[in-house]
Amino acid sequence: MEIFDGFSFKEVVTSFMVLFAVIDIIGSVPIIVSLQQKFGQIEAGKAAITAGAIMIVFLFVGNKILKLIGVDVNSFAIAGAFVIFVIALEMILGIEINKTTEAKAASIVPIAFPLVAGAGTLTTALSLRAEFHDINIILGIVLNTIFVYLVLKSAKWLERKIGDATLMILQKVFGIILLAISIKLFTANFAQLVQNYINF
């Protein structure tokens, strides 16, 4: 099948890791537990599928929106690199990203959006298109969707087992990974913009 022509295991793993770090579902376990206490049992499947669908739809529709407003993918990727950079700094420095907990249906809002498929995640997914094939990003999203489902299903158990100290360490480790990725994303796309400008 043509859709699998661009398949790359390395790109799938990288896409998964980048999105996993941005989504930070493990770091959100305390928020999820709090929402469960407030709204009752969260529908893990509904939340995960909705979040995955939002990411995949934006992956394709987002680019059309960019073309409509006259912004190229490289420019958007650079903007995305800045967003990822800020998120990474927040994770490393221990500054909490503002996530609303006011909602009527916690499974969709705020868990599916914006906790999982938030602005940072959507920007990151679209930014990855500047370097990776669509199929690899989609597989990365699907893997994250499955992981989100598993975490939502076992949120209370995870909070008891992992502990605050481990959560903090994981947050900082993924923050450093994100920081490196944001710099790579910026330099690669900035170089492409300069090349396009010179050729133009």
UniProtKB/TrEMBL annotation:
Keywords: Cell membrane, Membrane, Plasmid, Transmembrane, Transmembrane helix
Membrane topology: Multi-pass membrane protein
Keyword Nucleotide-binding: no
Organism: Chryseobacterium panacisoli
Family as reported in the entry's similarity comment: Belongs to the UPF0056 (MarC) family.
Pfam families (UniProt xref): MarC
Superkingdom to which the source organism belongs: Bacteria
Name of the featured protein: UPF0056 membrane protein
GO CC entries: plasma membrane
Subcellular compartments: Cell membrane
Transmembrane intervals: 12-35, 47-69, 75-95, 107-129, 135-152, 173-194
